[in-house]
Amino acid sequence: MAHVKTITHISGDWQDAEADIFAFGLFESGGLSPRGKSADEAIGGQISNAMKSGDLKGKSGETAIFYGESNRVLVVGLGKKKDFNAEAIRSAGGSAAKAAIGRKLNQVLVEAFGDDNTKYAGQALAEGLILGSYQFLDYHTTDTDQFELSAISVIGGNKGGMEKGSVIANAVCLARDLENHPGNVTTPTKLAETAAAIAKEGNMKLTVFDREEFTEMGMGGLAGVAAGTSEPPKFIVLEYMKGKKSQKPKIVIGKGITFDSGGISIKPASKMDEMKFDMCGAGTVLGIMKTLAGLKPKMNVVGIIAATENLSGGKACKPGDILTAYNGKTIEVLNTDAEGRNVLSDGLSYASKHYEPAFILDFATLTGAVLVALGHEATGVLGTNPKLMERVKNSSEKTGEKVWELPLWDEFCAHVKSDIADVKNIGKPMQAGTIAGAAFLKEFVGEGIPWVHFDIAGTAWGDRKRSYFYKQGATGEIIRTALDVIGA
Prior knowledge:
Elements: E1 7-10, E2 21-27, H1 34-42, H2 46-53, E3 63-67, E4 72-79, H3 86-102, E5 107-111, H4 119-133, E6 151-155, H5 159-180, H6 188-202, E7 205-209, H7 211-217, H8 220-226, E8 234-241, E9 250-260, H9 280-295, E10 300-310, E11 322-324, E12 330-332, H10 340-354, E13 359-364, H11 369-374, E14 379-383, H12 386-399, E15 403-405, H13 410-413, E16 423-424, H14 433-442, E17 451-455, H15 479-486
Parallel strand pairs: 1-6, 2-4, 2-5, 5-6, 9-10, 9-13, 12-16, 13-17, 14-15
Antiparallel strand pairs: 3-4, 7-8, 8-10, 11-12, 14-17
Helix pairs in contact: 3-4, 4-5, 5-9, 6-9, 8-10, 9-15, 10-14, 12-15
């Protein structure tokens, strides 16, 4: 992992700290913070002169470096003070980390932006700094120009919040790494091995069912998708049970298609390499469980992953085949590239049968239609329980990870009714594709169980322009929102 792992919290005078650069925040149309004034004096008033000339405004995303004889100072724009919130702190932290990497500076000292000493502000700052320091460099063997940031310190702010934010950010970076690795590295076996490491760290119970076992158990959705690959598929269950025995567990389920060719309904060759990202739902679940292992909250959470490749071998599932899911419902497969919902049918059914869930959240790069509807800016969410949906929206506001609810009306659910089976795995052509995917999944959620589906196909990877995202590849988005929803 090429990212800073820990944030060192310090107090005292910034000039006494060992650092290659000191970063402080500047509000738009605002004055310098006390440490900002000290820094300005240390470099002969360059910052205040830049403000007077209008070259430095403090706008969100703005950064500027100034040099003294023995000091290097980074000014990070915080935007308008009335709009200042945790996401502004997170973004400023990402900008500071990116600026240091761009100039190959090893040690960064950052003030608590906005002088906000609340716990969540500390958490947001640590998240921004660590996530902004992330780079995916594992396969560069000849590029000698690569540089990794080695240390970040924060002066002021909330230490406890920063410690929590560091745990969360490291878990997001773990998910990013799993998702960025190619399909010949992040296999279902790799996901199971990662789950085993998390289970050991967090004293969790791990159960992994292989092809023969889950097929015999009746998981026809996963078995059908896995039929075309020789790579061993896995059905992974991680149980974190640190709450009271009477406490209903919160269930998180992830789609783990480690490479998706589309199967017999094969995808176009262009950008098929990106289908290594079709396991980002599994990465989300592992990021959540990794965080629980680090924070050790008193709660009960179960993580479930259905993992396989979707290839077009001689035994592959065919359009027109009928599969029987774990809950006994039959699935008419009309498109083998709508495979994610097939494997999730077994995950949702398993959770509904073997637990009494407080609620279920599932995460999947399920449809290209959500990208058409929402672009890369928001995750599509659909569900059965208004209170749980409101909880998701509130957490989204807090974390800065945008979600948008789409309707799941009975009229849409009728789109996935099959003439020859219980359900079909696609809806009406060119209509409400994201909703049809959720309508299909709804058939496998137990009666009365609150459930929300997250379609992360537009937000899980891509060329995203946030300061705490890497320039390309996996984002790890929605892990932080899900953690807030479950109350970690």
